[in-house]
Amino acid sequence: MAEQAQPQQRLKLGLFGGSFDPVHLGHLALARVARDQLGLDQVLWLPAGQPWQKLGQRAMTAAVHRQAMVALTIAGEAGMLLDTRELLRAGPSYTVDTAEALARQHPGAELLLIIGQDQLGRLHSWQRWQDLLGLVRLAVVARDGQEVRASAEVLADVPALPIERLAMPAVPISSTLVRAAASRGEDLTPMVGKKVAGYIAQHRLYSEY
Ligand SMILES: Nc1ncnc2c1ncn2[C@@H]1O[C@H](COP(=O)(O)OP(=O)(O)OP(=O)(O)O)[C@@H](O)[C@H]1O
Ligand SMILES: O=C(O)c1ccc[n+]([C@@H]2O[C@H](COP(=O)([O-])O)[C@@H](O)[C@H]2O)c1
């Protein structure tokens, strides 16, 4: 008897963007949880070239370093890939541009945008966020004790916004805390892992906070 063709599974891609200045173990925990809970084929780590909402606050560390630290963090991790397209693109890093490019590149793929609650709460300030919501499904993790919830502005426009809630024990680490600890000369290993701690020391990053 002829074998029946199995229906093709849709490719499931996670989009995990960040300033990653620097990447830390909270990011890695989130990427692992998203990969495993959502059954993603791949998590694309997308360091932002110009994270426009953060640019006024302080000078961003050079892309070459942020990218290198992400590469060290995901080395040997199954289903994770460094995607440098936002570093190579001129102008502000808009997630909608990245989602459009990935949708063109992988027709039929399911795109899941992995973000923390801090970003979900501000989603209405993102460039063309309604277009973005037409391209991706949101996968959100609670952060800093805040429940996963879209802002009133987003809910007014999209009342039944589908959100995948990621279950993850809180990881009380942020890049801000890492930079502050680095400027005090503390051991960063518990926050960023041994390889990234070594990289930061070797390149004398974050000596001034
Ligand atoms: N500890 C954490 N737990 C859950 N999500 C996190 C954590 N740290 C970062 N994220 C999420 O990862 C994404 C990228 O974060 P980002 O690179 O801005 O790091 P950050 O620690 O928030 O940086 P900063 O302290 O400089 O604002 C965001 O969606 C953010 O919500
Ligand atoms: O598209 C936008 O307008 C937009 C506005 C703010 C943040 N983002 C993206 O959200 C991700 C997390 O941002 P951040 O500032 O927490 O590092 C990162 O990929 C940013 O490019 C995107």
Automatic annotation (TrEMBL):
Cytidyltransferase-like domain location: 15-180
Q: Which domain of life is it from?
A: Bacteria
**Pfam families given for it?**
CTP_transf_like
**Which catalysed reactions does the entry list for this protein?**
nicotinate beta-D-ribonucleotide + ATP + H(+) = deamido-NAD(+) + diphosphate
Mind listing the UniProt keywords for this protein, alphabetically?
Answer: ATP-binding, NAD, Nucleotide-binding, Nucleotidyltransferase, Pyridine nucleotide biosynthesis, Transferase
Q: What is its EC number?
A: 2.7.7.18
Q: Which PANTHER family match?
A: NICOTINATE-NUCLEOTIDE ADENYLYLTRANSFERASE-RELATED, PHOSPHOPANTETHEINE ADENYLYLTRANSFERASE
Q: What is this protein called?
A: Probable nicotinate-nucleotide adenylyltransferase
Q: Which gene encodes it?
A: nadD
